Amino acid sequence: MKDFVFQNTTKIYFGKNQLGHLGEEIKPYGSRILLVYGGGSIKRIGLYEKVRNELKSKGLTVFELAGVEPNPRHTTVNKGADICKKEKIDVILAVGGGSTIDCSKAIAATRYYDGDCWDLVTGKAPVTQALPLFTVLTIAATGSEMDCGGVISNVETNEKLGLVDPLLQPKVSFLDPTNTFSVSAYQTACGSVDILSHIFDCFYFADDEGKMDMIDRVMEEVIKTVVKYAPIAIKEPGNYEARANLMWAASWALNGFLGTGTVMAPTCHMIEHEVSAFYDITHGHGLAILTPHWMEYILDETTAPQFKKFDVNVFNVDASLSDIEGAREAIARFKDFVFNTLGLKSRLSDLGVDDKNFAAMANKACPNGILAGYKKLTPSDIEAIFKMSL
Ligand code: NZQ
Ligand code: ZN
User: Fold this and answer.
1) Residue from 146, 187, 287 whose mutation best tests the ligand 1 pocket (most atoms within 8 A of CB)
2) Which of 38, 160, 249, 283 is an S-S bond match for 277, by CB 3.0 to 4.6 Å?
3) Which domain holds residue 20?
4) Are residues 188 and 48 in the same domain?
5) Does any ligand 1 atom lie closer than 6 A to the CB of residue 150?
6) 2 is a domain residue
7) Facing residues of 37 across strands?
8) What is the pTM of this model?
9) Complex ipTM, two decimals?
């Protein structure tokens, strides 16, 4: 078990009747707001109007950056940072999903950098300062509303990289499950797999001596919550209980708590980001396909006990199975959940991916020749996982 420091400073307003607090929370930070949003879903659900009215009623001046792409582009970040500089923006308000929030984080930092945001993303230049960020979340998935990281794509170089800095932690996030009623069955499925993957990939399947058992128990309960409520949210999009459980599970999967006592080494995420970088696919769908193949690839006598523990504690499978049998059953049940219950397509080729770039993608996923995780992987291991997933 590793020593750790835990701090999460994001204030959460959760529930149906909280938006009236948005203006009062923002006001101490300034009056000139950049409202950032995606391709228009917030207009279709009436949230755009509500947010604008709330800000206006508190005397705040609103500027806008619309059209943030899923897998947000660095060029959009630069556009937002230019508005912030020109209009002397005090606060950024992201209304949307992980892409909108991530883009807003990068804008917040680039506001104080005299150059291309890509320099900050690649680490060529440090993040020195950031505008305060507020969020109104509209999809349960990434946890970006309660963490200090963002992921930005550069389509010119086929790169998708993380920008992580404590300065990017949102000040306040508004989580109203009713804002997620309109999320499609497909995006609900993808978001749910993303939540699960944050738990598996970052913490549950980790190469650590003496992990904290309490945290494993909490992870199993969060996983069970997603397994229970994702199918309900898909069948009944307006089910508040299901949407609320998914929303809160998403935030807690990646807000740092589940990482206490262990070292985060998100193997499948690093591999998936390469697929998104080259083929612009939906993050959660890429994870859904890659994760079970990664599990199969790393299964051996050293990894089997944790897979079996997962199977017994999450799916109530017979504990008398051998470790290897239990592990195989765990992978089979996970596949059944993702591809049958959630209905996601099971091959990368279904998403328009081909094998042309596998070698380049595998090399990029491990810049130092080794990718850390439950099992350390080399580029040839990663290429094999891509081929199994095709
Ligand atoms: O753009 P709009 O019109 O808003 O539509 C979006 C988009 O098409 C739609 N959507 C969102 N809320 C909706 C809605 N449609 C109807 N009703 C609503 N209420 O859903 C689509 C996907 O949105 P997006 O923001 O891309 O989804 P998500 O939250 O899954 O974010 C994915 C991005 O986050 C990154 C991913 O790599 C990807 O780029 N990640 C960020 C992380 C972080 N910051 O900590 C960690 C994650 O592992 C992940 O890598
Ligand atoms: Zn993710």
Assistant:
1) 187
2) 160
3) 11-179
4) no
5) yes
6) no
7) 95
8) 0.97
9) 0.99
